[in-house]
Amino acid sequence: MLDCNYFHYTANTLNCDEVRLDELADTFGTPLFVTSAKSLIESYKAFEHAFASLPHFTCYSVKANYNLSVIRTFAELGCGCDVNSGGELYRALQAGVLPEKIIFAGVGKKPEEIAYALKSGVLMLKAESISELKAIDRIAGELAKTASVAIRINPNVTAETHPYITTGDSKEKFGIDEAELPEVFALLRQLKHLRLIGLDMHIGSQIFDPEYYVAATMKLLDIFNSSKELGFAIEFLDIGGGFPVTYDPAKPATPIGHFADKLIPLLQQTGVKVIFEPGRYLVANASVLLTRILYKKRNHTGKQFFVVDAGMTELIRPALYQSHHEVLAVTSHKQSVVADVVGPICESSDFFARHREIDAAEEGELFAVMSSGAYAAVMSSNYNGRLRPAEVLVNGSEVKLVRKRETYEQLVQNELP
Ligand SMILES: Cc1ncc(COP(=O)(O)O)c(C=O)c1O
To answer: What sign for the dihedral angle of Cα 160, 166, 168, 172?
Structure first.
């Protein structure tokens, strides 16, 4: 079972909540991202429920899906934001998130981004190197401010997930190595414009085994205890994001409660507030990518292809991470066929499904590429001169266009003669 409860068949038509997907495609065109507001809200509530007994603060990791309506939906529920750039900070502020609920991450923040964050009054900047701490101190001094910072620790825990989304291993670029911490703490005593308020980690994404979190949290707790002995008043322990979702019904995600069961007893004893930064968990199964079948064709071996009007420019995850997405026919069929579902882009990696049993749909019909809410629209590109697709938000029977489809004029608007 996918966790896409708000996408369901009524008779033989796939709906989002109370709205038929074929009608959305007729109204808004394809490719089209369709997001269920109720699904966003339900995922957030499930997360909050799991960690309810722990004093904590959840910061939605905007990088997973930065549409203003998505950010606003979470903000209205009291959620904060984790941002990774000046652009994401701008989006969070535009969506109405209070600056004191925003935390600023990123391994390579530019001086102007640091200044923007400080002027905006974010809760904290998470520093990932000694050089960055010095830069934040200098910029805070120039602005006559004291910067609240967390240090992101690299716990050297290699979580089992796709190698491109493991971030807690010391051979990766993220965070400060444990061996450097004595120097970091000594430096923090000297720098006059910094206040250390948090310790932070993020070990990767789509992590199924809670034990990786336990191992990394134990390291964070050791560092927390040492920092206390050194006289630092840590207020926040940030555990990061990475909680898994089900993309493939054959590989169901570990329920969020299992992570809570392991983490709450460890963290409760600290007496400080815990920050979580879920991205994928909150949004992945709230959206589908609607695409129309342009052509069916066969090769000499009899292999069948569905050529659809969406591609890796809208959803790059299969090409980038070999990730699985269910592909459902919007009008269900009794017959199925083994086929590849491929896009129109000039790359062999431009596919959504390979050698998959798929409903025997006809040209002109629609497919829904499921679980397309996280790291999908945000990674879309204009490669091959493609227009970024429109996005709609569905709530019950209500439909709202939340991003217009790009136009040819927009494709060239920043170019000079
Ligand atoms: C620092 C940080 N926090 C949170 C996240 C969100 O991860 P996920 O979407 O897996 O929850 C990421 C994703 O890469 C990240 O880099």
So the answer is: positive
